[in-house]
Specification:
Layout: H1 2-6, H2 15-19, E1 42-45, E2 51-54, H3 61-66, H4 68-71, E3 83-91, E4 102-111, E5 117-126, H5 135-138, E6 149-150, E7 154-160, E8 165-173, E9 188-200, E10 206-217, E11 245-253, E12 271-273, H6 277-282, H7 287-298, H8 308-312, E13 313-317, H9 319-328, E14 332-335, E15 345-347, H10 351-364, E16 369-372, H11 380-386, H12 389-407, E17 415-416, E18 436-440, E19 452-454, E20 465-469, H13 471-478, H14 503-519, E21 533-536, H15 546-561, E22 565-567, H16 570-574, H17 590-594, H18 598-617, H19 628-642, H20 653-676, E23 678-680, E24 687-689, E25 696-702, E26 708-715, E27 720-722, E28 727-730, E29 734-740, E30 742-744, E31 748-758, E32 763-774, H21 779-804
Parallel strand pairs: 11-13, 11-21, 11-22, 12-14, 13-16, 17-18, 18-20, 24-32
Antiparallel strand pairs: 1-2, 3-4, 4-8, 5-6, 5-7, 5-9, 9-10, 14-15, 19-20, 23-25, 25-29, 26-28, 26-31, 27-30, 31-32
Helix pairs in contact: 7-10, 7-15, 9-10, 9-12, 11-18, 12-19, 13-14, 14-15, 18-19, 18-20, 19-20
Length: 818
């Protein structure tokens, strides 16, 4: 871990030393306590007339032996922390020919230990210019011996109590012939380090902490230490502009999922959010507002007169964010308890801010490249494993239409930017991808210098290419902001705890990584004729503030104005033919750790078909604004939000996982409630059939806001025959009486079990039992009737027989006498 590498307490702060009296430090320690710091320091005059104390170099070779930076020792026996060093500001952010000839660093030292620290001192150190791209990350964890240009310590405070902080300011010239300087003689990207020494109570003086950052030098200002304006060695040194780098910059607008989950679509109800943080982000000074304001200003006609910066940029918009913000403009609720999305809620405060922000984005998008990213930063590998066509369509095909509808534009098609920056071979087969995927340059096997490469395994009718972005620059950009991230594609050997660095230092690292390709000449020789390019890609959910966003855009703009870079529109990158031959995808093991949890994928796989089945059985009424698709869409989108990678690459990983599981659970409960809202009403008492063929009358109730097709499932005893009446349609929020033809063979009491299902077999509501009484006698009645009829015929025949023979009928005897 980087904390172990950087927060080093040398061997003199052993357990023995900490328990006893102070120990003298010799060659293995830091600067000897008796050395007079500041001796020989020379005041240097800045151009503005202020004075900076310039640190001096080691007096002799002996200084290297007593200097922890020069010794490079990693001999700590006690890893406890005593002080923490933070960089607050570096001036200038990027050196140009018109900059001051000094680098000024302001920061603070805080006592984070359990005892006071005495004689706290800091100094600035420098290393050689970065010559390889991965050094942009690896140098930030290198031993201090790499920073071999050292200055003299300057005292911050004589005593720093526990919990106290003390500020400092350091300044060194970039180059000088008369005083110690950083020794920078050519444009490039230079690693700098601030080192802090001190003496913890009960111990000896030691190196306690350091902070590293990158300084992009786009050009050297004049050397003020050389007298005479005509001296060529004192002149400013501009960069070489003979081979400018082609720059494409993605500018993301995304946020972690905010809509409360498990709530179907509606035309008259306000949406619910799990919190109101998005309102602050959209308001003046908020993250999303500042991301938008930075682009508005930097690409305005008065600033970007030749539109180079605007041409190099493409806005990348998450449709989930647009759906949320668009709903907020109509008023919304914030739930009191995110775990109870349908529970008590209060009015949201961001309706006005949402409206203003959305209108500004609508004004900006038509004049710039704009594209949609996959819905809610969904994990494409997890999406492929869930294997649901509806989810795939909503995640990859629908986003462009959502962005176009909300912003009133025609967005750039043909690009899929996975939030992870990597793509598994299986996910490359998802429908709706491409034809170009935006991937890290180490997400493909082998090395390539081409900006777009065809991927192996692509079909003839659906080829897929990869537009490759720069890993060091993207990793550095991801570290900028309030919530630093280590992207999935960052190599293992340059991954470290970003909390060790201050925001100012992380911003400097990003500026250095962006500027490095423009300041580094291409390797000589070889057959590569590809123009140099930089595809700069921040994370989709980027936590920068306004100052950081403006600084990044200012640096890119400065590269273009100085001739070090040219704009390369995204369309020019995507429309160019991909190089041959094809390359394989390289999917890192880290992607599984950063992706959607396995249990969430399993649950989503089970729930997604249920949502599809429900959609199929609902009725599409042309007279209603609420369609089956719009009613169930939020539930499908909730599954995509559960599969999101947002928050899974920073300190909130556990919270993101818990939120994902809760979303799937909420959808499951919502489906249960929906199915329970359609049912057969149980009769109040026994149901009486007037005859053996009287129809069975049942009442079905639908409490959903959309109509639904249902099917009766009746389980009758053997003496009752029921006719299947087929699919039946129930109106929205209404009931319907269903007549079921039935035949009963015996009189008496029968019990019939009745249930409702969807047309595709999903059970609706609670089954009920119907008690039936009938007056029908069945076979017995038929026999009696037949016997009575036969007797009647017999008697009638007997009478006719006697009359035919002229004989009186014995049955009439005594009748005439009366």
């Amino acid at each position: 871990m980087r904390a172990t590498l950087r927060r080093t307490v040398v061997a003199t702060l052993s357990v023995l030393a900490l328990a006893g009296a102070p120990m003298a430090i010799g060659a293995a320690g830091a600067e000897p306590a008796q050395r007079p710091h500041g001796t020989g320091a020379e005041p240097a005059q800045r151009p503005d007339g202020t004075v900076a104390v310039l640190a001096q170099p080691p007096d002799s070779a002996d200084s290297a032996a007593t200097d922890p930076a020069a010794s490079g020792l990693r001999t700590n026996t006690d890893e406890r922390e005593f002080v923490s060093l933070a960089i607050d500001q570096v001036t200038p952010n990027a050196v140009t020919t018109s900059s001051e000839p000094f680098v000024t660093v302001t920061g603070s030292v805080s006592n984070v230990g359990d005892r006071p620290v005495h004689d706290v001192k800091v100094r600035l150190q420098g290393a050689q210019a970065v010559t390889e791209s991965m050094q942009l990350r690896s140098v930030l964890t290198a031993d201090q011996e790499e920073f071999d240009t050292v200055g003299q310590f300057t005292t911050v405070t004589e005593k720093l109590q526990v919990g106290q902080s003390s500020r400092f300011t350091l300044a060194m010239p970039l180059r000088s012939t008369s005083s110690v300087s950083l020794g920078i003689t050519a444009p490039g990207v230079y690693p700098l380090l601030v080192n802090v020494n001190g003496t913890p109570e009960y111990g000896g003086q030691a190196r306690l902490d350091d902070a590293r950052f990158l300084l992009p030098v786009l050009g050297l200002p004049r050397d003020p230490s050389i007298r005479g304006a005509d001296r060529p060695d004192a002149a400013a040194i501009p960069p070489s502009t003979t081979d400018p780098v082609a720059v494409t910059l993605m500018w993301p607008f995304a946020d972690r999922p905010r809509l409360a989950s498990g709530i179907p679509g509606s035309t008259d109800e306000k949406v619910r959010l799990v919190d109101d943080e998005l309102a602050d982000s959209l308001a003046d000074g908020g993250r999303l507002e500042q991301l938008l304001a930075a682009v508005e200003f930097a690409t305005g006609d008065s600033v970007d007169r030749d539109h180079k910066l605007a041409d190099s940029m493409c806005l990348a918009v998450d449709p989930d964010l647009l759906i949320t913000v668009s709903n907020m403009t109509r008023g919304y609720l914030v739930v009191d308890d995110p775990s109870d999305p349908n529970g008590p809620a209060r009015e949201g405060t961001g309706q006005s801010a949402a409206s203003d922000w959305l209108e500004r984005l609508r004004s900006l998008a038509p004049r710039m490249c704009t594209t949609a990213v996959p819905f809610a930063q969904v994990d494409l590998t997890a999406l492929q494993k869930v294997d649901d066509p509806t989810l795939v369509e909503r995640a990859l095909s629908a986003p462009a239409g959502i962005v176009d509808s909300v912003l009133g534009i025609t967005s750039r098609r043909g690009l899929t930017w996975p939030d992870a920056g990597v793509l598994s071979p299986e996910a490359a087969g998802l429908r709706g991808l491409g034809p170009t995927a935006l991937l890290a340059d180490n997400a493909v096997a082998g090395e390539t210098t081409r900006p777009t490469v065809p991927l192996a395994g692509s079909t003839v009718d659906r080829p897929l290419s990869a537009a490759l972005f720069d890993v060091p620059a993207a990793s550095a950009l991801a570290a900028v902001g309030s919530t630093p991230q280590t992207p999935t594609y960052t190599p293992a050997d340059v991954r470290y705890d970003l909390s060790d660095d201050s925001r100012a230092a992380r911003l400097q690292d990003a500026l250095g990584a962006i500027a490095w390709p423009a300041l580094t000449p291409p390797a000589s020789g070889g057959a590569n004729t590809e123009p140099r390019g930089l595809l700069a890609v921040p994370p989709q959910d980027w936590s920068v503030d306004g100052d950081e966003a403006r600084t990044v855009l200012s640096t890119v703009s400065t590269l273009m104005r100085s001739g070090l870079a040219n704009p390369r529109p995204l369309a020019a990158l995507l429309d160019r033919p991909a190089a041959q031959p094809t390359v394989d995808l390289d999917y890192p093991a880290q992607a599984a750790r950063d992706g959607a949890p396995e249990r969430v994928q399993t649950s989503a796989s089970a729930v997604a078909p249920e949502i599809n089945a429900l959609t199929e059985t609902l009725v599409n009424d042309p007279q209603s604004a609420l369609t089956p698709r719009s009613y169930t869409a939020p539930l499908s989108e909730d599954l995509l939000r559960a599969l999101s990678t947002a928050g899974r690459r920073d300190r909130d990983r556990a919270a993101a996982g818990a939120a994902a599981e809760a979303r799937v659970t909420d959808v499951e409960e919502a489906l249960t409630d929906i199915y329970a809202s359609v049912t057969v009403l149980p009769p109040g008492g026994a149901y009486t059939l007037a005859s053996e063929q009287s129809p069975l009358l049942l009442v079905a109730r639908n409490d959903l806001p959309v109509g639904i097709n249902v099917r009766l499932q009746i389980s009758a005893p053997p003496e009752m025959t029921v006719t299947d009446i087929g699919d039946q349609q129930l109106p929205p929020r209404g009931s319907r009486t269903l007549q079921v033809p039935a035949t009963v063979e015996n009189a008496g009491k029968l019990v019939v079990d009745v249930a409702l299902t969807t047309t595709n077999g999903r059970e609706l509501g609670e089954p009920t039992s119907v008690s039936i009484r009938t007056n029908a006698y069945g076979k017995a009645l038929a026999i009696i009737t037949a016997c009575a009829g036969a007797l009647l015929l017999l008697l009638a025949g007997r009478r006719l027989w006697h009359r035919f023979r002229g004989q009186p009928d014995p049955a009439d005897e005594g009748y005439e006498a009366r």
